[in-house]
From TrEMBL:
Subcellular location: Cytoplasm
Binding site for L-threonine: 30, 117, 177
PANTHER family: SUA5, THREONYLCARBAMOYL-AMP SYNTHASE
Family, per entry: Belongs to the SUA5 family.
Pfam families, per the entry: Sua5_C, Sua5_yciO_yrdC
Protein name: Threonylcarbamoyl-AMP synthase
Binding site residues for ATP: 53, 57, 113, 139, 147, 191, 231
TM region(s), chain numbering: none
Function: Required for the formation of a threonylcarbamoyl group on adenosine at position 37 (t(6)A37) in tRNAs that read codons beginning with adenine.
Main subcellular location of this protein, as a coarse class: cytoplasm
């Protein structure tokens, strides 16, 4: 059945679908999510099927009030409350210890914790309030593909597999939320996002662990989702590192007459005389615009199968640049221009 695309004014219809155990994709400030009633196990199971998601990968629980969280979790610490006060609604997802059997195994992947997110998007907060239940909210893409930042991206991946999409326009941040594990003694960042380590430390006044810098090649990442292949377009992405010379990239493109995709910052684009076989797309001027554009541009290249190679500009992993580089590294499967 064709998936309905609903406007933000049609939330009653969207909430009815959720109450009936159907799937509804929803906008957030980061990326679009795939919603189902988190308290309805049969509904949650459909999310895994629609996405083709491995079933041991737990889901984020999306809420529209702090009391919705308190229903399911052990008493919140003062630190957790401070972080909630500072960053909710917003792009900080927090993992808390659950009360026994508070949520089904289908949501938690069998863990005794769950990740909670309070998105900064009024349409979706209203939708959750109307549904009256928290909704699970993995990114609304086919597993492995770049996360969706427009309703169109969701439609492309999930048309016919879900009841509806609430179209809230393009997302503003473009990469998924920061995930902070608050269920352990020292809070630990499992996935970098727009809320940075420094932002968090300035609220709780003690160092937090950046798990990315602790995960060795052989260890299993603590966020189960981090171990899967991710964000991969059909073409092979190669990272052009800050110490690479773009003239070498141009020489490579000139000596290989196939069409090549390039994603770079304005200051690089304008200094180079690009050969005709290069399709050059801007990442804007800074890490913020790059994070915003990355997934959408990778998806655009997927519409053009003639591109087998995309060169994408890497940056220093500072601020939201860490989230950008984290996602870019996964898209590229760690491949760099230097390796060509
Ligand atoms: O910005 C976002 O967070 C988006 C929007 C839609 O809200 N959602 C999102 O969900 O990115 P998803 O499912 O694509 O990513 C959630 C990540 C996965 O890597 C999962 O393994 C991890 O969070 N996760 C969920 N629950 C966890 C838990 N209890 N412990 C550790 N990791 C958990
Ligand atoms: Mg995802």
């Amino acid at each position: 059945m064709e998936t309905l695309v609903l406007k933000a004014t049609q939330l009653d219809q969207a909430a009815d679908f959720l109450k009936k155990g159907e799937l509804v994709a929803f906008p957030t400030e980061t990326v679009y999510g795939l919603g189902a009633d988190a308290t309805n196990e049969a509904a949650v199971k459909k999310v895994y099927a629609a996405k083709g998601r491995p079933s041991d990968n737990p889901l984020i629980v999306t809420v529209s009030s702090v009391s919705m969280v308190e229903k399911f979790v052990q008493p919140l610490s003062d630190e957790a409350r401070h972080l909630i006060q500072q960053f909710w609604p917003g792009s900080l997802t927090m993992i808390f210890k659950l009360k026994p059997n508070a949520l089904s195994k289908t949501v938690t992947g069998g863990l005794d914790t769950a990740a909670f997110r309070f998105p900064n998007n009024q349409t979706t907060l209203d939708l959750i309030s109307k549904a009256g239940v928290p909704i699970v909210g993995p990114s609304a893409n086919t597993s492995g593909k770049p996360s969706p930042t427009t309703a169109k991206h969701v439609y492309h991946d999930l048309n016919g597999k879900i009841a509806a999409i609430v179209d809230g326009g393009p997302t503003t941040v473009g990469v998924e939320s920061t995930i902070l594990d608050m269920s352990v003694d020292t809070p630990s960042i499992l996935r970098p996002g727009a809320v940075t380590k420094e932002d968090i430390e300035s609220v709780i006044h003690r160092p937090v662990i950046d798990e990315l810098h602790h995960v060795g090649a052989k260890q299993t990442p603590k966020a189960p989702g981090m171990k899967y292949k991710h964000y991969a377009p059909a073409a092979q992405v190669y990272i052009v590192d800050p110490d690479d010379d773009w003239h070498d990239v141009v020489d490579w493109i000139k000596s290989h007459p196939q069409p090549v995709g390039v994603m770079a910052f304005d200051h690089v684009i304008k200094t180079i005389n690009w050969p005709d076989n290069a399709d050059v797309i801007s990442l804007g001027s800074d890490a913020k615009s790059a994070a915003h554009d990355l997934f959408a541009e990778l998806r655009d290249f997927d519409n053009h199968p003639e591109y087998k190679i995309i060169f994408t500009q890497g940056i220093d992993p500072e601020g939201i640049g860490e989230a950008y580089m984290n996602r870019l590294n996964k898209s590229a499967g760690q491949m760099h221009f230097k390796q060509l």
